[in-house]
Amino acid sequence: MLPEPQPAPVIPHAEFKAALLLALTLALISGFLAYVMYARGVFASTQRLVLVADDSEGAKVGMDLTFSGFPIGRVQRIELAADGKARILIDVPREEARWLRTSTVFTMERGLVGDTRIRAYTGVLDDPPLPEGAMRPVLRGDASAEIPRLIATMRALLENLEHMSGAESSLSASITNVQTVTERMKGRYGALAGVLGSGDNARKVITALDRTNALLASVGEVSAKLDRMIVKADERVFGAAGVMDETQKTIVQLNAVLRDARESLKKADAVLAEAQAVGANTRAATTDLAALRAEVEASLRKVAHLVDEINRKWPFARDTQLKLP
Amino acid sequence: MRQVSSLHRGFSRVLGELGTAFLGGGASWWRVFHFGALALVMALSPATYDRENRAVTANQIYFTAWQVLPWFTLLAALLSLVLIRIVVETTMSYGLSQYALEMVVRVLVLELIPLFAALFVALRSGAAINTEVALMHIRGDFDALRRAGVDPLRRELVPRVIGSAVSVVALAAVSGVIALALAYIGVYGFSPWGFAGYTRMVGHVFDLQVTLGLALKTLLFGLAVAVIPITASLETPREVRLAPVAVLRGMVRLFLVLVLLEGASLAVKYI
């Protein structure tokens, strides 16, 4: 048999306490809702900014627009425009809008860890403020997009290194050659064998050098003999009664001969002057002859004219040809 | 031949039992929804709150919410403090301290505290309601009430639903606000200069869907904590030896529903 239920204990001010609890809960909830609405900028008046990007990847509704690390706006909507570009609509509270000027640059960066960030950079804060609904391009910087390029470059670099260090590479061949040369250098003939390729060649060079040395010694003797010869020749040429002395005397005699020849030439000059005078006379005679000839030519032209005249006036003559006797 | 026919009989019996169990389960869930809807409508209609009912409801609120509020708040604050410390320390050691606050708020205020409040109320009041209603049902108190011209649904059951719903919502609200304050202190200390960033983060986390989702989830938790045990008690046959079965079934079902609600809320938010 079940025990009979006891009457419920009387709780002092139960209704008041229940109402108090309800009021507290409601106050907390409504206060929190008001705070969230304030935090979401429901009460702040905002200004619209439109960023145009080639690619909206990483951009999310609700993300911040930051300026110097401080959030100054929030993405409200992301849409695809008719020209295929992404339009990121951002609401900026009016009091924060003073940081955005017409010269402000917007970037969208994506790090390796964490969200994409939209940032604003304003170089000149004295520029005119950004108008309501302004449309601006956004520059993209994507750290993770750099990685494939980096890896490709690195792979190329590694491949080059591999080529360089491979067994058939030119670097390896060069090193092998260097090794051969240095091994030869370790031999009896040292560096010479290394340079010339083998010990035989080096020996030949050394032999040649020996011969050259001998040759140089004999050349030295020859040059000593030549020296002596030159001294003797010097004596013969420039000594007393030497070649030079005789030559000087001969030159004096030649001077005398030349003087005589000059005299003779003067006489010949006079003869030539006279001959010139004879020539002048002859020229005058020639001038007279020219006048005479002109006169004869004039007379002949007159006779010819006369004959032409007669021929024209001769009635029966058909032959116009003039026949001179 | 006989073997085959007995196999066939056995098979069809198993199928029949499965079908019955399925239908029974379906009907039982249907009763849960039906009673839940009925209780909600009655709780929202002013006619429910006559003088007698007001007193009963006030008593229920006093027992399920008022009595536990200080202790639960203290417990939740302690848990929040530990979690906030862990998250802040871990994120700082990874150099991601800028995400600490958001993570704390998302994990604590949006997920853990409502679930923690619902589980606490379920453990403390849900089990009590389950047993009490099962005993009243077996004893025939509801029939006696009906004979006396009192609707047992209105007089005994709806006040319990209201009491546990108010309890879950109140506990979650108070602990949530305290956790928000503790998160601010845990990240910024007692400096007032983190307020702008903190406000911004709160605005970022609590968008419309998240806020509505949190409210709906907490309310459903509150309803489930009373509705499921009451339904489980009422559908038990009126035998004293079956009272523990009613409590067991009610609590298991309640736990399942709480986990499903939480899972669904997470799935909607993050998938």
Question: Would you kindly provide a written description of the structure presented here, covering whatever features stand out?
Answer:
The complex is a heterodimer of chains A (325) and B (271). Chain A is an alpha/beta fold and 325 residues long. Among the domains of chain A are: 38-145; 149-181, no CATH class. Chain A contains six helices and seven strands. The longest helix of chain A is centred in the last third of the chain and has 71 residues, at 243-313. Chain B is 86% helix and 0% strand. Chain B has nine helices and no strands. The longest helix of chain B has 43 residues, at 2-44. With 271 residues, chain B is mostly helical. The chains are: A alpha/beta (325), B mainly alpha (271).
List the helices and strands and how they pair.
The complex is a heterodimer of chains A (about 325) and B (about 270).
Chain A: H1 14-39, E1 46-53, E2 64-67, E3 70-80, E4 86-93, E5 105-110, E6 116-121, E7 134-142, H2 143-165, H3 170-185, H4 191-196, H5 199-238, H6 243-313
Chain B: H1 2-44, H2 51-66, H3 69-93, H4 100-139, H5 141-147, H6 152-188, H7 195-205, H8 208-234, H9 243-270
Helix pairs in contact in B: 1-6, 1-8, 2-6, 3-4, 3-6, 4-6, 4-7, 4-8, 4-9, 6-8, 8-9
Class derived from helix and strand content of chain B = mainly alpha
- Helical residues, percent of chain A: 55-70%
The helical percent of chain B reads over 70%
Number of helices, counting only DSSP H or I runs of 4 residues or more of chain A: 6
Order of helices and strands of chain B: HHHHHHHHH
User: How many E strands of chain B?
Assistant: 0
The stretches of 5 or more residues of chain B where confidence is low (pLDDT under 50) are none
Biggest interface, CB < 8 A: A-B, 29 and 35 residues
Order of helices and strands of chain A: HEEEEEEEHHHHH
What kind of sheet is the major sheet of chain A?
7 strands, mixed, barrel
- Shape call of chain B: globular
Q: Rg of chain B, please?
A: 23 Å
User: Mean pLDDT of chain B, rounded to whole units?
Assistant: 89
Question: What gyration radius of chain A follows from the Cα positions, in whole Å?
Answer: 64 Å
Task: Describe the global form of chain A.
Answer: elongated
Termini Cα gap of chain A: 200 Å
Low-confidence region ranges of chain A = none
How many strands appear in the DSSP assignment of chain A? 7
Q: Into which percentage range does the β-strand content of chain B fall? A: under 5%
